[in-house]
Amino acid sequence: MPKLAARVGRIDSSGIRKIFDLARSLKDPINLSIGQPDFPVDPKVKLAAIRAIAEDRNNYTQTQGIPELRTQVLGEELAHTGRTWSGDEALITSGVSGGLFLALLALVEDGDEVIIPDPYFVMYKHLVRLFGGTPVYLDTYDSDFAPDPDRLERLITPRTRVLLLNSPANPTGRILSDAVLKGLARVCAKHGITVISDEIYRHFAYVPCPSIASHHADTVVLVGHSKTFGMTGWRLGYACGPKPVIEAMTKVQQYSFVCAPSVTQYAALACPAVDLPPYLDSYRRKRDLMVEALSGTFRLAPPDGAFYLWAEAPAGLTGDQFVAKAIANNCLIIPGSVFSERASHFRICYTVPDDRLRAGGDLLVRLARES
């Protein structure tokens, strides 16, 4: 029997993937669990991919990514954050997950502490542990799911290396205000803390969506094409950050991913031509539909962005217990314990047809009232 590396024992199987597997065993469930867009890849991007294949652009690219795409994303960062990153401060990655993998490998050593606001994206604590770090949780439940700068400062120790932010956030949908980001940046600058800012959902924002990179020089920004343009299986994102960090991430990528998928990189050159506002308007309407259906029964986190609702389970039930009731009634949602050190909430994804949303909302309200 092969002996597995001890590091594998530091992480668990994804609770989200367990729900996905369960979905395949149910007959026509109301599936409010899948965290990805429901719109197709834009025809212009599809044609760019087809053209790249036909022109035999199928080989490895530079590890850093093709120059045209790096120039494109640097322009996007200038427009969004006001930061003028140089060419050697940008790296094309295999999705934001790939960028997070590289950033943590470049920054975290055995025993280092990474502060993670709770709730958090499921991957964060597991990658930190996999790479030998220690996740330290910054509770946000009593601060409207926005990390408090003073509470952050109290968690910092000589072993603290990184603050890992996510705005707009999965699972809460929270977008951090500029005032909050300035406060966090002040604390991180004072203590020499690097920020990894996961901004995968920045284009799904229903209120202004600033970036901490505008205020803190030592920020590694992670942005993705996969969610924004409905191409989650194409695995494309990018990182911008201080030159030493990007160089280290590039070195790690040489011996891991090698490069982001070549065809996807060339296809992404067409992404600026995609008309995104109609998709955002559609999701805003879906969000409003579900907020209206649920807010009289459930306490919801501020649904500022992304495409999730973070709901507190009915009194007397944990989030896990309420999710079990929903699954027993053929409705798939994700237990909050997957995203948190607490088990009080559950996550809903509203990127599904309106009739399924209404049916799901009605069912969840009925189950809550029966509890």
Describe this structure in words.
There is one protein chain. This protein is an alpha/beta fold and 371 residues long. The protein has 2 domains: 6-41 and 276-370, Alpha-Beta Complex (Aspartate Aminotransferase, domain 1); 44-273, Aspartate Aminotransferase, domain 2. Helices cover 38% and strands 15% of the residues. The protein has 12 helices and 12 strands. The protein has helices spanning 15-23, 43-54, 67-81, 95-107, 123-130, 149-155, 178-191, 243-254, 262-268, 277-294, 319-328, 354-370; strands spanning 30-31, 90-93, 113-118, 134-139, 160-166, 194-198, 219-224, 237-240, 308-312, 331-332, 334-335, 345-349. It has a 7-stranded mixed sheet with strand order 2-8-7-6-5-3-4, with helices on both faces. Strands 9-12-11 form a 3-stranded antiparallel sheet. Helix 5 links the parallel strand 3 and strand 4. The longest helix has 18 residues, at 277-294. The model has no long low-confidence stretch (mean pLDDT 95).
Question: Helices and strands in order, then pairings?
Answer:
Elements: H1 15-23, E1 30-31, H2 43-54, H3 67-81, E2 90-93, H4 95-107, E3 113-118, H5 123-130, E4 134-139, H6 149-155, E5 160-166, H7 178-191, E6 194-198, E7 219-224, E8 237-240, H8 243-254, H9 262-268, H10 277-294, E9 308-312, H11 319-328, E10 331-332, E11 334-335, E12 345-349, H12 354-370
Parallel strand pairs: 1-10, 3-4, 3-5, 5-6, 6-7
Antiparallel strand pairs: 2-8, 7-8, 9-12, 11-12
Helix pairs in contact: 2-9, 4-5, 4-8, 6-7, 10-12
What pattern of helices and strands is seen along the backbone? HEHHEHEHEHEHEEEHHHEHEEEH
Number of E strands = 12
Strand content: 5-15%
Task: Please summarize the sheet with the most strands.
Answer: 7 strands, mixed
The helicity comes to 25-40%
Number of domains: 2
CATH topology of the largest domain: Aspartate Aminotransferase, domain 2
Give the assembly state of these chains.
Answer: single chain
Please, what is the CATH homologous superfamily of the largest domain? Type I PLP-dependent aspartate aminotransferase-like (Major domain)
The outline comes out as globular
Low-confidence stretches: none
